[in-house]
Structure formats: C-alpha cells, structure tokens
Amino acid sequence: MNLQLTISQLRKIFELEDSTQDDTLLVNEVVYDTRTLVQGDGKMFFALQGKYRNGASFIEEAYRKGVRVFVVQEMPYKAHLDAVYLIVSKPLDALMKLAKWHRLHFEIPTIAIIGTHGKTTIKEWLGSLLKLKYRLVKSPKSYNSKLGVALSILELHSSAEIGVFELSISLPDEGKVFNEMLAPTHVIVGHIGDKHNENFSDKNGKKTEYFNFIKGCTSVFQLHSKIDDFWSGNKGVIKLSSSDFQSSLAALGFIDQLKEENAIMALGVASYFDVSIPDDIQFPDVAMRLETFDGIHDSLVINDTYSLDKESLEVALQYQSTLAKSKKRVLLLPKEMIIPKDEITAILKRYAPLSCHFSDELTLEEASLNNAVVLVKGNAGSSMNNIAHLLKLKQHRTQINVNLSALRKNIHALKDLLPEHTKTLVMVKANAYGTGMKRTAVFIEELGVDYLGVAYTDEGVQLRNYGVKCPILVMSPGADDFHDCIEHDLEPAIFSLTLLDDLVRTLILKNRMSFPIHLKIDSGMNRLGIKPSEVPSFIDILHSQPELHLKGVYSHFAESDNQLDPSFTKHQLDIFLGACEMLSKHISYPYTKHMANSAAIINQPKAALDMVRMGLVVYGVANDLIAKKALEPVIEWRSEITQIKHLSKGDTVGYNRAFIAKKETTIAIVPVGYADGFRRSLGKGKGTVFIGGKSCKTVGNVCMDMVMVDVTGLKLQEGDTVEIIGENQSILDFSAQLNTIPYEVLTALSLRVHRNYVVT
Fold this sequence. Notes:
Helix content: 25-40%
Number of helices: 26
Radius of gyration: 28 Å
Structural class: alpha/beta
CATH class of the largest domain: Alpha Beta
Strand content: 15-25%
Number of domains: 5
Strand order of the largest sheet: 14-13-15-12-11-34-16-25-33-30-31-32-29-26
Mean pLDDT: 88
Shape: globular
CATH architecture of the largest domain: Alpha-Beta Barrel
Distance between the termini: 23 Å
Low-confidence stretches: none
C-alpha cells in the first residue's frame, strides 16, 4: 500500500479534533502485528483490542522497530516525545474508516464474495482468470473479517482495474458495515450453510444481512436453487448454470460437486467481465500454498510456487519474516517476471535485509543457505518448484504432512464454542502430539492463544529457545526444574505441598518475588494434585510467602467424553469449584480457573470457566460426531513403494517366514516399520494401508524399517504413494487396528519421520 497521508489528513479521516502537530511525518502503510514488522519507517501501528490479544502491549516493540505514528485507545504509560498518538474509541473502527476513505478514490469494479464456505476457492480461481485481462487486486489468503477486508481494501492502488474481496458476514449489522466500507459493485453469493446461524434471531437473519450488504451493487451472481426464492426480488440477480460452461468443466475434470459449483461461479463472473476462457483451463491448487520443509545445510525452505504476483509475494515474504525471526532470509525468484522490476525493488526494500536471487537454476553457494529461511517463488508448473525440491533435505521416504491451516480452523471452531471471556490454552506436549513442536507451537502462538501447555520443563525451555513468548504452563515440573522455570519465565503447576516448599526455597535463593504458579486440585482422578482438605495449608503458605503469586487453579476430568453418564464429571466439577470457593475467601486478587479439556469443551459447556485446555481436538481428532464434522484432520502419514515382488505358491516372506503364499501373490515393500511408529502388532494381515485408493493388508511380520503388503491384482509401480493415515484411513481407523487410542498413535510417531508443513 502507498497511502502518503499526513497527520492532519489522518485526523480528518478518524474524525478527531485538529491539532498543531508536525505534518512532516508521512504514513504510507499500516501495521497491526509487530511479528511481521521488519522496519517501521513510514508505518502506522494500530493497537487493536482483540478477544485474545491487546495490541497496546506491543506499542513499545513497534516503537523500537521504527514506528512513530500510533492509533491507540488511550495514551500509553510510556509515551515518546517524537511519536504521534492518535487516540480513538476503537482502533479497528478507525482502520475501517481509513479503508472506507481509501475505497472512495477508486472508480473500478469491486467484486465481493459472500457465503459460509468456498469463498477463498472462488476468489483464487476467479482471480486466476481475471488477471488474464485486468490488473487485479484481491484479498490475500482468507482475509474476510472486518480487519482482513479493511487491510485488503488498502491494497488498492492507482493502476488497479478490478478488485476481488471475500467477506465473512457472521453477525447482525455486519452486512451494512461491510457495504459502507467496501461499496461493492458486484456480489457473488457462494454456498450458504448453517455456519453462524446461532448468531441470528431466525433462519432468515443471515440472509437479511446479505441483503443489507448487496444494496447498491450492480449485479448479484448466484447458483443455488435453495436460495432462488429469497433472491428473486432483486432485479440484478444473474443465475449461473453448468450448461453454460460444459467444455471448461470437462477440461477441469472435477469429480467433487462443490469444486464444480465453485468453478461455475468463477467461470461465470469471468465471462461477465469479457475474459476469454482458455481451452486448456487449469485452476491453481489452493491447498498447496506455502509448503514448508527442512532444507539442505540446516535451512528451512518455503515452497510457494503456486502463483507469482505482487500480492502473493507480499504474503509469502510476511510469512517468511515470521518464521525467520532473527535468521537470515533468502528469496529465490525466476529470471522472467510479470511484476515490474521497480515494484519488486520497492517490495524487497520493505523486507530488508533480504538476499534475493533471480535464476531458473539452483546456483546458490552453500554458505548462503546455512541456517537460512529460503523462500522459493514462482508460477505453477515453473522450474522454481523443481528448485524448491532440490533444496529439500533428503529424508526418510516415510513422511508426515502437517496441515497448519486445518490446525488454525480447528482452534477457531473450538473458540466459537466458548463464552467470550474464556481464555484458551493449547497443549503442545509430546512433540505437539506428533506434529513437531517447533513449527506447530510457533504457528499456534501466532493465532493469538493465551497459553501453551507442556508436560515437562525441558519442553517449555525448548519453546522459549524457539522464540515463543506467550505464557507457558508446565504441568509436571520436578524440584530440580525450578531454576529453569524461573530463568525461562515458565509457570509451573504445583501438585503437592512438598513441591511447593521446594519452589519457595529456590525463589528465596533467586531473590524472586510474586512468581506465578498454578495449583493442581485432585478432584477425584487420583493422579497429581492436592486434595481439597489440603487447600487451607496451601493458603497459609501462600500468605506467608511473598515469593508466590497464584496465577491459576486447575484440575483434570477423568471421563468428560462420557455423554451417557456425566454424573462423575459433574461431581468432579463440584469438588473443584468448592476448592476454588475456599481459595477465593482468603485470596483478594483474581486467578484463572481452568478444568475443561478437549472433550469437556464440546460436552460440558458449563466447565469452560476462565480458561480451557485444548488438546487432541486441535489436531483434528474427536469421537463426537458433531465435533468430527467441525474439525479437519491435521496429519497425513504417507510413504512409498520401494520394491514390488511376485511370489509363487509356497514362497515365504520376512522374518520367521511368518507368511507363506498359498497362491501367486504380489507384494509391495514399504519403508515404514515399528521404529517409525508402525507397530509390530500390525503384521500378519492385522494392519492396513491404502495404495491408489485400494486397501492393502500387511503380510508377514512388521520389521524395524519396513513392512510388506499384499497388492495382488493392482497395477502399481515403485515410487507410488502409500497412505497410512489420510483420506481413506483416519487416525481413528488406524488406532482401532492397534486396539489403542489416537493419543498413543500420534505421540509414538518417530522423530526420524520427516514432517512437512502446509499453510493455505
């Protein structure tokens, strides 16, 4: 964005009283997240007040990085004389006013996409067509909230010819708010499901908000027959049909109905704007953006070779800055670029220091890659994708794909179930449930959760070494761990009076006062925790030791997933609340009460209290049918065929000759074994993998590093993908074969199995 606004202009936009402040400061860009801020010259920081994070806490960090203009709700305690503080009632509303003001300067078609799902896909597919004819601005990724739409509008520039924006209308009066800010000329009505229905008074409330949004627009594009009657009164409705795009749909070859309907939307609107649809049309794969994996020479590689335009480059560079923190950053771009070189130079300047290389071949020296975060950009099908994979560290052919976007969706879905005041703690113990603690924990922190939880102190220390700054609860500290807890700002759980005494001794030695602790109450599970009868003794120690500060009190449910008989769960909650009541009578300051785990969030809403602890459900695993529909799997476990063998009758397979062929049989050898987490008990036909969508049972014993499976009758070749956990076989299915629970499967995944990370 290139705003070039003076302080006086900003005051008028924000409807503030005029001031004699110096107008030499020019604002050309807005920021709200200091984690993506490299240098602050010319930037204006909005201290947004959110449900899970207070932007005012990051004002000082923004100042240190060079920001001198701040939009704040109140004057900060530490104000700088060389900075300008614009005090508004709500910083987000001020940002929306700025976006509205900016939008008024562009007389171009603006296409808004509304609905409950499919908006991002329609936007990306439509964008890929429109940019064949127009200079396009579109909202990045899934920027569809009030904040996201405002930021997207601010990306409009003087050479833009058309804009495409997605919006999420989920609350009453949002339709009008979005309409005033964006002033759309055209609207695409996508798929309308039941999401957010609970926020409206009746079943037509959401559609009424959609009506409020489309007021004043030229055309409304829609597809679904179920909303025909509702929209029939609008003269501008343009109904799109598959019959108009049969050849294009045939070329795309979609089997999935939802994808086909999204494609019809994109094709129809593009045709309306006189875009010639290519005969060999292909849409970008929205799901494969920002794939992250370990690279050679201790590097981290971001493969974003799905599209290359100014917008996607900015998004990828922001993501790279977030991951890199203090590490050096390297950017690889193709020689031939659609983006003008002067625009690239301007973008790169904002992300300096950055080493940029233009080449269609891998020519980097080893030294430039050492401990670097390398971003590879290019268009789909370009040679840059090959370069990205040349940089990939050659790992075990059995790999785990971690879908961070699914993780994000799951967290947001769970937050939607909580009362507004309830905080969130996400458990990342046991290597973040097998997903890889470093990448997963850093990503989760960026989502604005209030806490991360670990089992042991060394896990908390690892998180701090990874750059995690949010509060961390250590649930099973030992007496020898308290030095590390103090040094690394970790909040230990106290589950015995003996452990409390050990902590006090360490705090006295360290001369540390008001150190935060969480008291664990044993409410009937009979694991760690003090009994309610011991609470008075705890209170006495707390009052006598200024070294201690009670930050939280918590307990564990034993069977919150038992919906048939929740009596013991309610009994535990009563015990816990009784202990909290006892504490509150003697403690004058507030503390955080938390008891609800993953299952309780879904099944016991009264147990939400002040904070919940999200565990397995965050990673997309739940037994509850309703939860299953709302969650997306985070993990895929895949391998490949290393060899195919044809057996004659009587041939044997593997150690102990545990399999004897009764007829001509074809087997495939797969490089996954019990050292990877594919347990030996899955041998002899008890375990299943999927190859080419077909179920294949194990033969013989599972070895340490490989397993053999029966592929008789299948047309396969070496190198074909083998699915262990994925689309055809869920983790619930796989754990059932092992006669265990998903927790054990996830946490038993070996560290030698390489993790790939995908963000969409």
